[in-house]
Amino acid sequence: MPLNKHLLLGILGAVVAACSSATPTPAPTAAPTQAPPPKQYWPQFAESQSWPTSTADWFPSKGHYGGTSEGLVRVSPAALAAYRELTLGAKLEAGATLVMLHRSSATGKPGPVHVMQRRAEGWHYWLLAPDGAIEGHDALPLCARCHADAPADGAFGPPQPAPEYPPRPAAKYPPQPAPE
Q: Is residue 93 part of a domain?
């Protein structure tokens, strides 16, 4: 019987411990996920959509997205003439803003929007989603590095048509001997 007495005391101890008023430690839970911050929009996006374009139509974008997109540049109205006439070494005035819209060459789906705004201290850059939401701004080293090589004040200007050269006369080669 003594063995049964010890067994009963052990069971009684477990029941008492389980029913005690001590609060059990809760199981660890995953950290609550934070909602993403609300989107911030570039303040001039809606206005810029009515600005004049530097070209009559979309053109192949050679500098962005590996040639898989087409671009259309909208220019703040006060800077349009100066932008269209950019020449080597020309400067755009502070306040000049260039907005390059992109779309897929294959599908026409709207893509990222690149913005450059000339300020007294230099160019400021924004990378926007197609709806104008800011995805990056100011410290965009890739933009600054590439545009530092542009021929006119950090801007490449509107795409230029390939030069037309006068036709060249056909080359005259001496007659070749017939194969034997």
A: yes
Query: Within a domain: residue 107?
Result: yes
Residue (of 45, 44, 36) closest to 129 by Cα position:
45
Model confidence pLDDT, tens digit, residues 24-73: 556 666 667 888 889 999 999 999 999 999 999 999 998 888 889 999 99
Report CA-CA distances (Å) from 9 to 4, 5, 6, 17: 9, 6, 5, 12
- Is there a domain that residue 60 lies in? yes
The predicted model scores a pTM of 0.70
Which sign, positive or negative, has the C-alpha torsion 105, 100, 148, 134?
Answer: negative
Q: Is residue 86 part of a domain?
A: yes
User: Distance between CA 158 and CA 98 in Å, rounded?
Assistant: 11
Q: Could you give the CA distance from residue 122 to residue 43 in angstroms, rounded to a whole number?
A: 19
Total structural domains in the chain?
1
Residue where the block lists tokens 């063995």? 3
Tens digits of per-residue pLDDT, 62-116? 888 888 999 999 999 999 999 998 888 888 999 999 999 999 999 999 999 999 9
